[in-house]
Amino acid sequence: MAELTSHFLSGVAVFFLMYLIIYASYLFASVTVGAFRLFRLDRMSQIKNELKHEFYFPVSILVPAYNEEVTIIDSVESLLHLDYKLYEIIVIDDGSTDRTTALMAAHFHMEKVARPIRRMVACREQEEIYECTRGAVRITLIRKKNGGKGDALNMGINASEYPYFICMDADSLLQADSVERIVQPVMEDDNVVAVGGLIRIAQCISMKDGKIAGYHLPWNLLLSMQVMEYDRSFLASRILLDSFNGNLIISGAFGLFKKDVVAACGGYDTNTLGEDMELVMKLHTFCRNNDIRYAIRYEPNAICWSQAPSSFRDLKSQRRRWHLGLFQSMVKYRQLFLNRHYGVLGTFSYLYYLLYELCSPVIELFGLFAIVLAAGAGQLNVGFMLSLYLLYAVYGAVLTMTAFFQRIYSQNVHLSAGDVAKACVMCVLENVFFRLVLDVVRSTAFFGYRKRKLAWGRIRRTRQFGEDVR
Hints:
The chain is α/β, with parallel strands linked by helices. It has helices at residues 2-46, 72-79, 100-107, 149-159, 178-182, 184-188, 221-235, 237-242, 259-264, 275-289, 312-332, 344-358, 360-376, 382-410, 417-443; strands at residues 59-65, 87-93, 111-112, 126-134, 137-144, 164-168, 172-174, 192-201, 205-208, 211-215, 254-258, 295-306.
């Protein structure tokens, strides 16, 4: 029995060593490529070498909302300060039980209209439609029967006038140049069918007329650790995957899509918790199966500031929902797995999301179990284990720190000495503590959790963006 345990632990040790080496190498390559790309973009901006044009193709901005009376006015007002000439705003109230529709209609002096909506993709019926105009921007508010976020977005697609649409959350703010930035890849290549933007934590900033007026790290530990996690994820992995058209997800908080291609593949799936990832994987498979030349891009300078959960209860609910959505999408498109027909998408991207996103919580918690088992069997070299863990934690913290400060540099954001010190501490805590907590949360996503396919993910909102949430 002792010999069998020894062989088992040796095999586990080899597996985890390889698992960590591969992930550490991938993370290093991702952060390096991401930092280099941002540096190059910043240099191009400084020497005025960006693609500038007087032509603006029209864009519809879709804002699905459910019980968003706290933030909806601020979000729509922020959209009226965009440095973009041709766009419309469509807010879809998915059967809210609060005053979302009433506040919108009153604040913007909207009038109820009778307007037919052509069904390009399936969605539930509309109940009321309101419209108004602010300057050159038309604002449409549609109240419909509750059907979930995917269904609300399908209604927005049906109601939209323009050939490209942007989806964004009702608790988010766009910078003045965000739309101009996110359409840039389409201006460079008309084969682009979707573009993802960068998501950052809104509780860090105050914003005025689409410009950042101030930045600070919140005192709330959960928020600060999420800041580090977001900056590493969006700087590193997505930029590297973008280099070979391998991104499998565009955040539902901010993404640009070509409407006719989305409609041709059926629009958003209304029976999944991860409608954003499901749509991107659907676009990949639809275009490849139909031999359509396409690209799905990521634009790191198109920035959306979105509210993050400030309590552990909200964070747990959000991450369980994300993990279940990831699972549903991976299972639905399992034909990608190691399938040469899909190229690097199947042989690398799908495999990465399978091993280091979907299965990683279970794998890492199993590693902790193996450590306990080794200690009980007297086969644990405590000194070596602690040294290896410390080395890995410091390595991860340094890469996270690189990603965070690269974003700060590229946006010309001023940080106080206190925020710099706080960021360094948060980078360590995020790698040593926060990651383990999320592993536990995501591992329990399938236990005691009711999968409500039409339910909206809910977190507590604050009206003033940049406010310190405690």
